[in-house]
Design goal:
The complex is a heterodimer of chains A (404) and B (277). Chain A has 404 residues and is α/β, with parallel strands linked by helices. In chain A, 33% of the residues lie in helices and 23% in strands. Chain A has three domains: 74 residues, Alpha-Beta Plaits; 74 residues, conserved putative lor/sdh protein from methanococcus maripaludis s2 fold; 236 residues, putative lor/sdh protein like domains (Rossmann fold), CATH 3.40.50. The longest helix of chain A is centred in the middle third of the chain and has 17 residues. Chain B is of the alpha/beta class and 277 residues long. Chain B has seven helices and twelve strands. In chain B, a hairpin with a 2-residue loop joins strand 1 and strand 2. The chains are: A alpha/beta (404), B alpha/beta (277). At the A-B interface, helix 1 of A face helix 3, strand 6 and helix 4 of B.
């Protein structure tokens, strides 16, 4: 992961070639720079100043480079400690609060840089009594919480797309439908295996199209095989998954060869109704009403799932969070340890998940529609790699490469 | 200058120093006396700093600080052995009516040893003894542009072992001692350089004192002598071998008080020349 620091160099830095030397030293060290500003002295004794933002491959390289630059008079710009102001109301941030990104973030306190525990975009930074710093969404701030204000003493580390043989490198361009899918999916499978081997979790975010396109059994296989560790979805996905298992249709349309049955449009309502009668999806599984499918496998294998509701939901299923704030909090609670996120044919849940994911989570957004991936990136999830293809085809190929 | 009453190699802070090499104090006194006599004969006036026991290097007054007109910036020595010299240096300059301005704490600069005036600027050495971070403040305090030169040879730890201004256009220069940027800076600044060979440089040729048209040197290789005389300089050789044992030559034993560059008092006018940057 790359790290950055701003250095300042003062004096007669142009004629003495010090500026040129400093820039050369940076490049020779394998680092990159950006001129933040340059002020060139006008008179004989006016000195010149330049501030240079240096980006190095890692912290060690940066420290070595900063030590070398210091010899030539270029010093890291002295940063003050972060400033905090106590929140004066529950659920309301102090004016001028620092609004977070999803990038790895550090806060300077007592002269030391402290990592923020859980990077998440569009949150505030709250300093805990034990000195740790957490991102906290606006509604979870309580009166008296010390909230970081302004930009002083806060720095973010730009995220580099991971190096090495990975799909990101393979897909050096942005999302495109004109890429060979087979190798791409094979590499996603490799990355997932690598993440799992390193103790990371895989999160799947599923839209109802996963069921409509007949890919439900593939997702169920991945849950059963222990590949998927966490599932985020909505009322629609869970409903159609159960509907397809209980009645063989998805939104009334048979997933086999049959013609649509009479009154099939109400199938999903009948399913929701029966699950509600049993109190929960787990209850319906225990009762023998649900005997297969993604939700069934989640219950059977203790894979946590969060179903976030929306205004247009039918029912909804009893497990659905109807309070969106609670839904987002429930999602946050399940993110610990997630290393790979698969966004499968989902627009709204993918964006909602993107909002709470740290930028370090490798995110693969699979959709037949290129716009979904673009949307995700536009909302700040720049780490998402888009794969434009049918989600059913993607999952079958993925399973093939995971050798399940 | 400071008489060598307490001179000796009592510690080792540069590659020339070796405590096992004894200094002949009587010889040192007589060599130092010869140097004073030669400088005086060449037309220089010599002011004296009182020697202090326990401060053997006080004799190297080039490191007392940096002077421009009546402004004096005391040194901030890298080595603790030399740091106590500063009080005596400052006392002399205060007693003689100089305006004393201090560099910020934490940056090191070893005076005229690492800051030589030439064509309206101070060339300033750094890395071995002085910090590049000192140059900004030094420039402000003295009202003169400062151009840093990185010193890359530990044997040539001060700029005054590698650069010797002769007059307004000429200087003895030792590019081997500098990095490539420093060489370019000097090349741009000095219209007529006398390039010293490595041997000549290590023979302290650049550590000479120039008084008018007289160049006072610890030794003078024939080649250098011919070139200097070709330019109209008289060469006077003074044996300072006892002081070379401590890594200091003629120039190290002196501090020029007649430096006057830039415009007195107020900051120099806006000229917009290349010297501005």
């Amino acid at each position: 992961m790359t790290v950055s620091e701003v250095v300042q160099v003062d004096g007669h830095i142009i004629d003495s070639l010090i500026l040129a030397k400093v820039l050369d030293v940076i490049v020779d060290a394998g680092a990159d720079y950006r001129m933040v500003d340059v002020h060139i002295g006008r008179t004989n004794v006016d000195s010149s100043h330049a501030r240079i933002e240096i980006t190095a491959p890692d912290g060690e390289a940066l420290a070595a480079l900063l030590a070398e630059l210091q010899i030539h008079g270029a010093n890291a710009v002295a940063q003050g400690d972060a400033v905090t102001v106590a929140a004066d109301m529950d659920g309301v941030l102090p004016e001028g609060f620092y609004s977070t990104t999803n990038l790895p973030t550090q806060v300077r306190m007592g002269g030391h840089w402290v990592d923020v525990d859980n990077p998440e975009m569009d949150c505030a930074l709250v300093v805990r009594p034990d000195g740790r710093v957490r991102t906290v969404p606006m509604h979870r701030v309580y009166s008296g919480d010390p909230v970081v204000v302004g930009r002083t003493g806060v720095r973010v580390q730009p995220l580099e797309r991971p190096r090495g043989a990975n799909p990101f490198e393979f897909m050096s361009s942005e999302v495109s439908s004109e890429k060979p899918k087979e190798q791409l999916v094979a590499r996603v499978a490799e990355r997932m295996k690598g993440a799992k081997a390193g103790g990371g979790k895989v999160l799947a975010v599923c839209g109802p199209a996963v069921i409509h396109t007949g890919a439900g059994p593939a997702v169920a296989d991945l849950v059963r095989a222990g590949v998927i560790d966490v599932l985020f979805a909505g009322n629609g996905f869970a409903t159609h998954d159960i509907e397809s298992n209980v009645l063989g249709t998805s939104l009334g349309v048979p997933l086999g060869d049959d013609l649509p049955p009479e009154g099939g449009h109400a199938n999903h309502l009948r399913v929701i109704n029966e699950v509600r009668r049993r109190g929960s999806i787990a209850g319906a599984v225990a009762d023998g009403y649900i005997t297969g499918g993604v939700m069934y496998e989640c219950v059977k294998h203790d894979v946590p799932f969060v179903l976030g509701g929306s205004v247009r939901d039918d029912g909804p299923l009893p497990d659905v969070y109807t309070d969106v704030v609670e839904a987002a909090d429930a999602m946050r609670a399940e993110l610990q340890g997630v290393a790979v996120a698969l966004m499968l044919a989902s627009t709204l849940h993918a964006i909602a998940t993107g909002n709470v994911l740290p930028a370090g989570v490798e995110t693969y957004c699979v959709d037949i529609n290129q716009a979904v991936v673009t949307k995700l990136a536009d909302r700040g999830s720049h780490q998402a790699l888009g794969i434009v293809t049918d989600v059913g085809l993607f999952l079958h190929t993925l399973i093939h490469h995971l050798v399940l | 200058m400071c008489p060598p009453e307490h001179f000796g190699v009592l510690y080792e802070i540069n590659p020339w120093m070796n405590r096992e090499v004894a200094v002949d104090l009587d010889l040192a006194r007589s060599q130092w006396g010869d140097l004073v006599a030669t400088l005086t004969e060449a037309g220089a006036g010599v002011e004296l700093l009182e020697p202090q026991p326990g401060l053997p290097d006080l004799v190297f007054t080039a490191n007392a600080g940096t002077v421009n007109r009546r402004r004096y910036v005391p040194s901030r020595f890298r080595h603790p052995q030399r740091q106590p010299e500063v009080d005596y240096d400052v006392a002399w300059f205060e007693a003689n009516g100089y305006h004393v301005s201090w560099l910020p704490e934490g940056v090191r600069h070893e005076g005229a040893g690492d800051a030589l005036p030439f064509r309206g600027v101070f060339l300033a050495g750094y890395r071995s003894r002085s910090d590049a971070a000192a140059h900004g403040p030094l420039s402000t305090l003295l009202g003169v542009p400062v151009r840093p030169i990185e010193l890359v040879d530990p044997r040539l730890y001060h700029l005054d072992l590698t650069f010797c201004p002769l007059d307004d256009r000429r200087a003895m220069v030792a590019p081997h001692a500098w990095d490539s940027y420093g060489r370019k800076v000097v090349e741009t600044l000095v219209p007529e350089p006398l390039y010293l060979e490595a041997e000549e440089m290590l023979g302290f040729c650049a550590n000479s004192v120039v008084v008018g048209s007289t160049v006072v040197m610890a030794q003078c290789p024939r080649r250098v002598g011919r070139l200097l005389e070709g330019w109209g300089f008289d060469v006077a050789v003074v044996d300072v071998s006892e002081f070379l044992k401590a890594g200091g030559g003629c120039r190290c034993l002196t501090l020029a008080l007649d430096v006057a560059i830039g415009v007195p008092g107020e900051p120099p006018p806006s000229t917009g020349t290349s010297a501005a940057r």
